[in-house]
Amino acid sequence: MAIKKVSIEDFLELAGKHPVLDVRSPGEYLHAHIPKAHSFPLFSDEERKVVGTEYKQVGRQEAIKIGLDYFGPKMREMVVKAEEIAQKSDSKTLLVHCWRGGMRSAAVAWLMDLYGFDVYLLEGGYKAFRKWVLTYFENNSLPMMVIGGYTGSGKTEILIELEKKGELIVDLEGIAGHRGSAFGNLGLPEQPGVEHVENSLAVYLRNISAQLLNSDKKWVWIEDESRRIGNINLPEAFHANLKSANFIFLKVPFEKRIDNILRIYGQFPEDRLEDSILRIRKRMGNDQNSIALFLLKEKNIRACFEILLTYYDRFYLKSSFQYERKSIEITPENFEAEEIAAYLISIKEKL
Asked: So what's the architecture of 4-134 in CATH?
């Protein structure tokens, strides 16, 4: 079967069924990549540098010769690795891309085609994918029902329960790898960079939009978020969509929210909590921040978080209600996430 070049839309459609091989260098992949793509480098970072330097200083043909020196000894190993990836995916089709659809992806595609795989090449490579990502947010909007509420209301847990019950959701904190406060990175891996978060969000929204179109549902559920989550900013157009969507504000009692916060963060070491508290010292104010730190040192974790939650309540009130949107306030009878999710589903036709 001949190697086929496909557009980004066709490539993403195929990527839902078949493995993607990202043949860029490990450093390029680590910086950001197409979600679920396998790192399958033709060259190491150092080899890429050598080939690139030769290309600029001497010329294309000499660069190709050096590239072949690197490529030749790796051929068997790459075929074996591709077989393992294909077997895990139960597919005989491979999707291949490099930075801009040039020699690296062409070389790997040739080898995989020679061995017997069905091979698709992404026209324009990762560069074309990034162009698609950046225009996606500008050209697409999503019908949303935004779940709001003060810190500790259990909004993320409610989203998870809604998904379990068959609803469509967008978990922004899950995609961003951060819970969205000064404490939001505790217990989590290092947050991905902004480029990778944009990639993941665009592909997720594309897929969830298709599911929404093929269902009888009116919207997807999403948690209210500020534009900044940890170290990254959400795309401006997407965040504008979020802040114009219909909004449910959950009134969860202060004590219940303290319980939720303690359950999530109360088990972390004192020094990690101290670092997080110090991070908001300027915005919180020296006096209140010092009191929170004192209570932490005294092992009075609940009182410490009461101080912090009071600060976050003021912060949330200021940031969340500055947008013009249809808002509904709900006080659930039961404050467990599963029960709130069931309640929201039961009244969604009235929303």
From this structure: 3-Layer(aba) Sandwich (3.40)
- What is the pTM assigned to this prediction? 0.92
CATH topology of domain 142-350: Rossmann fold (3.40.50)
pLDDT in tens, 106-145: 999 999 999 999 999 999 999 999 999 999 999 999 999 9
Listed by start position, the domains of the chain span 4-134, 142-350
User: d(Cα 282, Cα 291) in Å, to the nearest integer?
Assistant: 14
Who contacts 130 (Cβ-Cβ below 8 Å, separation ≥6)?
195, 199
Q: Which residues are catalytic?
A: 98
Residues 6 or more apart in contact with residue 206 via CB below 8 angstroms: 12, 136, 140
3-state secondary structure labels for all residues of 282-345: HHHCHHHHHHHHHHHHCCCHHHHHHHHHHHHHHHHHHHHCCCCCCEEEECCCCCCHHHHHHHHH
Contact 152, 260 (CB under 8 A): yes
